[in-house]
Design brief:
The protein has 119 residues and is mainly alpha-helical. The protein has five helices and two strands; from the N terminus they run αααββαα. The model has no long low-confidence stretch (mean pLDDT 91).
């Protein structure tokens, strides 16, 4: 489920956060599904439990999970997170499109490249 890339320059906890967010946004992890325990995930990934705890704290801060005392952490059922993420991606795409248009790429060339992806 979670794979750590030790060549990645990002801290391990950020990689864990991004991977869980991706799984949640794609629907691989459902609303109110229990997250792996900190101890089990740390053992599975062979990393310090504090790293997992830091990742879970960040996921909770961003609203992707919630914690129930004595029971663990669970996936949040907030559908607005998916909409928020889509808006963030659209903003990133538009920023990039503006940049490539400024260096001379045409709208038709951009569309052609996007259509190649859909094959």
């Amino acid at each position: 489920m979670i794979i750590i890339d030790y060549k990645d320059t990002r801290p391990i906890y950020e990689q864990i956060v991004e991977r869980f967010k991706t799984l949640m946004l794609k629907g691989a992890m459902q609303s109110d599904e229990q997250m792996p325990s900190v101890r089990n995930l740390a053992m599975e990934l062979s990393i310090n439990p504090n790293t997992i705890q830091k990742a879970y704290a960040e996921l909770e801060r961003q609203g992707f999970i919630y914690t129930v005392k004595g029971r663990g952490s669970f996936v949040s059922g907030d559908n607005s997170l998916v909409d928020k993420r889509k808006k963030e991606y659209i903003e990133q795409i538009l920023t990039l499109v503006r940049e490539v248009l400024e260096i001379g790429l045409t709208k038709q060339e951009i569309i052609l490249e996007i259509e190649k992806l859909q094959m």
